[in-house]
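Progress note, project year one: complex with LQSD347O.
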Amino acid sequence: MERSHPPKVCLHILIQSFPAVKLHLTGAVMRATEVEFDKAKEHLKTLKNDPGNDTKLRIYALFKQATQGSCSSPKPGMLDFVNKAKWEAWNSLGNISKEDARQKYVDLVGTLISSEAPIQKEATTAGDPKSSYQTLQVTTENNITTILLNRPEKKNAISRKMYEEIMQALEQAGKDDSVLTVMTGSGDYYCSGNDLSNFTQVGAEGVEKLARDSGELLTRYVSHFIDFPKPLIAVVNGPAVGIAVTGLGLFDVVYATDRATFHAPFSQLGQSPEGCSSYTFPKMMGTAKANEILLFNKKLTAAQACDLGLVTEVFPDNTFQQEVWKKLRAYAKLPKDSLRYSKQLIRGMEKEKLHAVNAQECVRLQERWLSEECMNAIMSFFQNKSKL
Ligand SMILES: CCCCCC/C=C/C(=O)SCCNC(=O)CCNC(=O)[C@H](O)C(C)(C)COP(=O)(O)OP(=O)(O)OC[C@H]1O[C@@H](n2cnc3c(N)ncnc32)[C@H](O)[C@@H]1OP(=O)(O)O
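Model obtained:
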């Protein structure tokens, strides 16, 4: 099987990693199936939504079976995450014939394509781009646009798709008629930070390209918070990790449940601070306190985070939502333009500095992501969790 890739298998890698295959097909029925098969391969490239890892692996397995027959190669080693996952998916098909596999492949791709059609149609006819988010739920009510991080099964870890969607949601919220924008999490976590499998999606161009792309993505992501034009409020409904903590320095107000914790385990992950926290944290809480968090992985309780100025106010968990939303609804009745201009005056003094800090942090991170320290830490996370 191909070179070692870590666990998350993205569609384009799967597509790229298919070897050139010559189909030895004869007879009218089989030729017809070959055409369908080729069409399905083309259709697959047009998919807009990520079908999820399990489906991608099944597609891969069916393709292999359809073109090469049953899996006969030796099982890859334990740490060869991607090839092991591919091997297992292929092997699990058992002895189905090439024709069956081809038919199943065509059916599966057909189902994926047709399941996308209604989503596209709905977005067009309703004219409401908010409905097209996959990782977020975005709503506007009582002059408040709420961006709900909506991957509760992954503790709202931020996948690449989610970074893009958050940026899109911020752009829309910045322009809409709402007075305030709120970010919060669905389920028991606010957000567990960067989805660590973002670092395992190594394409054919290699890890350097992945690091460059990640640096570019992060720079854009953080810039959206620096430049956000109206009051941005975090409703921290549970624990926050990594970039979900560091980014809080760019919000205007942070309300937290007393169940929330704040943890930025950068050195543990062989990484370095982001979200402008290397500047905002020392400024807000003093260098010594910031160092405990950013260098030595100190996890803060909500009360500690409040004492340090990272959190505005803490509420008991059982009345958190009620008390916070009552406050927010009252704030949202204040004059919109006055709030915008006031925020812009406060942020304006710092903007240039924040962009410079963001750029510098991302350059350092690109180097860190290629380091052995970082790769080992990420591998160890997935090994401990027995991923894929
Ligand atoms: C494009 C690049 C930009 C990079 C920006 C730089 C940002 C840096 C950071 O944010 S660093 C911080 C990264 N986050 C972490 O290190 C947290 C990792 N997760 C955990 O430690 C734990 O999952 C937990 C403490 C958040 C929760 O623990 P627990 O309550 O025991 O739940 P589970 O571990 O079982 O989690 C459930 C489910 O979610 C998956 N998951 C949770 N967090 C992440 C994550 N950050 N990345 C990927 N996956 C995550 C976890 O694996 C479980 O999945 P499973 O059910 O096993 O499939």
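The longest helix spans residues 98-126.
The pocket of LQSD347O is lined by residues 154-155, 157, 192-198, 214, 217-218, 241-243, 265, 269, 271, 274, 385 (CB under 6 Å).
No further modelling is planned for this target in the current period.
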